[in-house]
Amino acid sequence: MPLATDESLPSNYQEFPDGSILRMVFHNFLTYEHTCFIPTQNLNMILGHNGSGKSSIICGICLACGGSPKTLGRSEKISDYIRHGCQEGYVEIAIADENKGPQTIRLTLRVGKAPEYRLNNSVATQTHINDLRKQYNIQIDNPCAFLAQDKVKSFSEQSAIELLRNTEKAASDDLDRIHRELIGQRVDSTTIEDKCVSSDKAVKHLEDEITKIQPLVENYRKKLALQSKLRLLEKKKKILEYEEADKELQDEKMKADDALKEYREAENSVEDCERRKKILEEKARRERSAIVDLRSKAMSCLASVQEDTHKKLIETELGRAKTRLDDARKQASNHEQKVSEIRDNLEAAKRKLEEAKEDAVGFNEFKIDYDRKEAKFRAMKEEVYREESKDPFQGEIVSLQNKVRSAPRTQNIMDQRLNEMRRKNEHAWKAYTFYLENRDIFKGPVYMPLMDIILKSPEAATLLENSFSIRDRFMFVCTNKDDEKRLNNDKVTWRINTSVVYDDKVDEAMYEAKLPSQLRKVGFDKLITECFDAPPPLKQYMCNVSGIHKIPFGNISHENMDLASKTLSQFHMEVYLTPRLRVCIMFFLIVSNFICRLLSNHPSILEILYKQKKEQEEWKNRIAEKIREVHKKQDMMKQEFMNWRAKLHSVRKWENDIRKYKDDFEILGNSTVNVEEAEQDYKKAERSAVEKTKKMMNTMLEGQKQVLEHYREIGRRSLISAMCNTKASRLIVEANTHREKLLELKDMKDHAENHLRAAVNKKKVARNNLILECELQNLDEEAMNVTEKKVWEQLNKMFKEAEVPTDIDTLTQSITNERTRLKLAEDSGEDGSEDHEQRLAKLEVDLATENTKREKLINNRKNLHDKLGSDIDTWKKGIDEMIEQINKNYIKFFEFLGCRGEVSLDIPENPLDIEKYGIMIMVCFRKGESMKRLDNKVQSGGERSVATMLYLLALQQLCPVPFRCIDEINQGMDPTNERKVFEIMVGLWNGTAGTLSKTQYFLLSPKLLHGLDLRDNVNIILANSTLETNHRNVRIHLIKVFELKIFQFYKTTSKLDALFAEMGIAA
């Protein structure tokens, strides 16, 4: 292919899209003496070392298209672009146009003269060139399409607002036009808002005047009203006191009646038990007597039958008579013995009863003393609890903790820290000073490791220094996202690092972790988190970024290091510290005094704090000891009371035993055995034995029947007697239970009667007050006379109109308040007059007029805001769609790098402030960190270059421009990111499909990376304008060779290296 000339065009120039560059000619322009450059319609990669003239090509394109030197970021004097030592130079470009043919623009520069533009060899003005540029949509003033070398750095310095405007220009003229129109509408709404503010001030002025006069007028009226209301409240209070006293009296009457009723019921129960017991005992006695008679009759009948039956019957009858006689004698002897025994037991029980009564003497005095001491103990406990609630140390401890957290700026330690911060990081110092001076506008606390860490020991400074990075010491840790925006936004003059740790994300188990027992056995003492104190959000942040909750410390000898490492691996810990080493694949510990010097100054305050806490603990122990002493005395009193109860129980027990012995004695007395009668019966039996024997045979059958009938009746009566005895025993127990209950009910009855007498006296006092204050005898309307009813109705009406409280406590508080108000009104000296009332009326009329005017302005403002808000929503919908497409590509590109990034719309606090909308770019290049806003003070130069290039790539498909220029975007990139970014660019631009493959690109770079996917439609140009004159032919040959698409002929690296060697250039 022949070398390019000043008139050459690409062979396929008719296929170039309108606005593409067909040819560039430079003559005495910057580094070039004279050269011609023929680009392709796709990707043109211009390579060359620094100072080789790559950027001169970009400068020539910009100036030839009517651009300003300011766009380039270089000299703003256009004559400085003439080659050094020359008086004149020019740059010429040919632009593709399918209908008109190639359009040639030449810019001629002369020293001391204005630049001259020519369009197709005809003189033109810069305005004509700008119109032509707009016709082809060439955006050389938009960094999204035209990014010169010296503008790469300033791209990330664009404000969010500027970035949005440039993105709109690049992506959509309609969105840019609508944006400008909305800004105009916002100016109109601002005018209305200013009028509303003026009207608000007028209303405020009138309200202030009314506020000044109202106290004078109201105070005059108020004193009369207060006096009247106070009297009304006093009347209501007396009525409520009377009602309360009456209700209390009724309640006490009911309680006294209930107590008396229960007492009477208990008495009746005791009497009923005694009556029923006597009936049962009498019935049992009759049954026993009947049984004796029946048994005697049965025996007589049986004897008679036996006597009538046989001779032996007579003998048997006599023997039985003898037996009965013996039994009677024996029973008589036993009866006397039982009577003697019961009499002895009765006498002993009486003695025991007397002893028990003597022991129980003094119980009433003890009961009175017990109640008094019990009340005293309750008062002592209440006093101790009140003393406990008034913790004398808590206030001082809280104050010391606040001093530790945020001590006054005059304190020496804070001054030292702030001075150290100012020396190390002035931006952080400015931000922290702003936070201290404006703490009230922040929604939550903001922490910084340098300011808020409290070390527990001198060695903790060295441990923390080797566990926590220097960069993170100046990190601002917020607990609220809005606070982070207040500290780190476009308006502030400082550049700081911030992070947000929400309260619900704080994991106490993490930052309060304790050293496992297995590690203590190896020789470790504690974790790094145990070496210092800090607020939970700050400690959580330090655990998140540095993992200090997984770094143990201990005096591990060299011999135990292997054992320590094996034990640590069980807990997934990779680092540990010793007094002289930081062990992590044998890294040596580097000791620094930075934290030690700054963070170990708190122990003086901490010692006081710990001392106060210790004294508080001792004080609490003394309070607890007092409570235990009171409980001990109460237990002793209760034990003594239980002893008295046992003595009273003993009295009742012996009384019951005496009654039982008396009953047994009575039963034995009623069942005496008559021995003489038994002897007589025996004699009669002997005399009648013969007669009965004779009659027995005749009456045997009837006699047997009578015997059986007698024994049947004996069994029935024996069962009845046993049942009566059982029931009588139960009634005795039941009667004793009722007697015990009767004693308790008597105390309750006496207590209720005392309360009743107190309630009667209270009602008398309340009734006297009611008569004096309200002129009413009582509150029963049926018992009132006509005058009292009228007074009562009038009072109720007044109470309702004045909304007088019906609760006595609220009413008492209202009376106190009214008295205070009356006293204040009397002491204020602000007495109003009729003139003040007239002045007040006029001001109120003026205020109503101004309020009407203000409402109209507010309605107008609302209508403008509604329309503006609707238009902004429509515009924002298009912006959101545009940013969504950009963000989708941006996220994809960053994921390809293994990082995170996103693009979003930055919406101002007031959505109507259309001029404050912007685009916010958030990036994160390290794992474990949160995304931060793209900023030249936060990210490094390489990181900003990567973020800038990826944003431009994400914008490409939305930006319909004929060509784009990007100059050395890879400055500062690390090799890995540089290659990935180039792979993304080349992959997007050198393809054969898609809109991006049909756009002309000029990519300037100081080097060509090996291994890129460079296809036939990629044009590589090697620029080197620094060769000496004797190398001119070599330079021109080199440029022309690369203009011939060397990759079309040299498809392998070896052939390309051979070409460079032939030309005398090192590969």
From TrEMBL:
It comes from the Eukaryota. Keywords: Coiled coil. GO terms for biological process: double-strand break repair via homologous recombination. One of its GO terms (cellular component) is Smc5-Smc6 complex. Pfam families: SMC_N. Gene3D superfamilies: P-loop containing nucleotide triphosphate hydrolases. SUPFAM superfamilies: P-loop containing nucleoside triphosphate hydrolases. GO terms for molecular function: single-stranded DNA binding. Residues 223-366, 668-695, 735-789, 833-867 form a coiled coil. Residues 22-984 form the RecF/RecN/SMC N-terminal domain. Belongs to the SMC family. SMC5 subfamily. This is Structural maintenance of chromosomes protein 5. It comes from Caenorhabditis brenneri. The gene is Cbn-smc-5.
